[in-house]
Amino acid sequence: MSRFLLFSRCFPVMVVVLLLWSGAAMAEIRYVKPSLEVPVRRGQGMDYRIVVIVNDGTRVELLEEQGDWARIRTEKGKEGWILKRYLSTEPPLNEVVSRLKKENRTLQEKQATFKERIAELKATMQEEIDSLQAALQESESQKDECLAELDLVRNQYEALQRDAADVVQTKQQLKDTRREVEEVRQRYLTVEEENRRLRKNTSIKWFLAGSGVLLIGWLIGLGSGRSRKRRSSLL
Fold it and tell me: Which of 19, 79, 109, 126 has a 20 to 30 A CA-CA distance from 69?
């Protein structure tokens, strides 16, 4: 029950706060039109007491509208009624000019910042371009070196091919020479064998010839002795 009483007491306050909050959220901004001074009154009529005097271009908050009158709130918190013909949705010229000047300064600052960034980007891009050009030149130099090395390797390969062909040919010539040497050696052995056989045959022939001569001499001597004996016997 106590909670219900507390809620019933607080509920009106909450409703008022919500109404004030919704009214503040729905409020619109208006500007006082060019004029000397415009009175803000307590009620909708010239008979009501003036709450505050607002000047040309004063920024006020529109709370509600009723007929030709509008309830407003100044920036200092003063509330009252003012004729709607003194209000406008357009800001005053001096405020527009001030806002435009401020926007112009902001744009100039942004432009200066953009110029600085563009200059930095140009410098960075120029550095990158110079780096790329240097890398390109180095790459071209390396390409030329690679081409020169390729030509050298190609020449060495062709020389190796020629040397390999010469080696093969030399090996074949060496093989043929070895075969010829072997044939010559075989012929030499054959000739040597024939010479040895001929020398042997020649020795035999000389031996036989010598023996024949000795035999003939012995026979001749023998015949001479017999003829001498015959002669002596005849005598």
Answer: 19
